[in-house]
# Entry
Amino acid sequence: MRRFPFVLAMLLAAGISAARSLYSLPPLSLSASSRTPSQGEPVTVEVAAAAPVDNLSLRWEGGSWPLRETAIGRYEGLIGVDLLAPAGPATLVAEGWSRGERVRADMVLTVVARRFPVQRMSLPKSMAEFDGAALKRIRSEASALEERFARVTAPILWRAPFLPPVEDYRPENFGSRRVINGEERSPHAAVDLRLPEGTPVRSISEGTVAFAGEQFFGGRSVVLDHGGGVFSVYYHLREFTVSEGRRVARGETIGAVGATGRATGPHLHFGVRVPGGRVDPSFLFPLPAR
# Structure
């Protein structure tokens, strides 16, 4: 019995020491799939919290982006480096509230310049020059799509691994600097997949149809919102089989390859937007499941 106070004191001391060790941990820790992403590369981000945290988000490239809780105290997000982002350091921040105080973790990513191909094309004037009415339509459609891309929706539906949009995935031309009839145009912010007309096109992950309709450049087009600022884009479809607002499953057929809009032959124009900008979708498919 005389040893009981001593043992109790030892247990209390151990408990206090463990508590101090727990609370000495940083409130948030931050890790990324790459500390040196190249232009056009997506980056998965993991945040660990040593204590309960509220309103946790990532700050990246001027925006605030949500994360998904994958386990108690563990969170996941997806960001990216736009294909035109300047090379050099860029700061990623995770921040939220814990025990009534603001907590944050910072990480500096170093964006690496990437060499993109130059694609020189000669097209008929009817495909390269547009009158006032056509230009007005082009600008209106571009503005409407940018407004959709600016929406950050919940829940976050995407999950790795992502699924290629077609069985025979052989991408071309991402980021290519296009010179049409000797005039430099905007870079190609997607990949081209040259496939027979009618080839089924499927969703790369679960999502909601943000747009399904006809566009001047894209022809019959579908845009899927996968939540949290992640979108996938499918242009030049022969037809689409989904409607706006509908939820689609990973791998669900959403249309078929065609040559509608400003296309010189059957192919799928396939792009992905994530928080931070336009990325090369081919980087998504090797991402491991979590």
Q: What stands out?
A: The helical segments are 4-24, 125-128, 132-149. Residues 164 and 242 are 18 Å apart (CA to CA). The first strand starts at residue 28 and ends at 32. DSSP finds three helices and 20 strands in the chain.
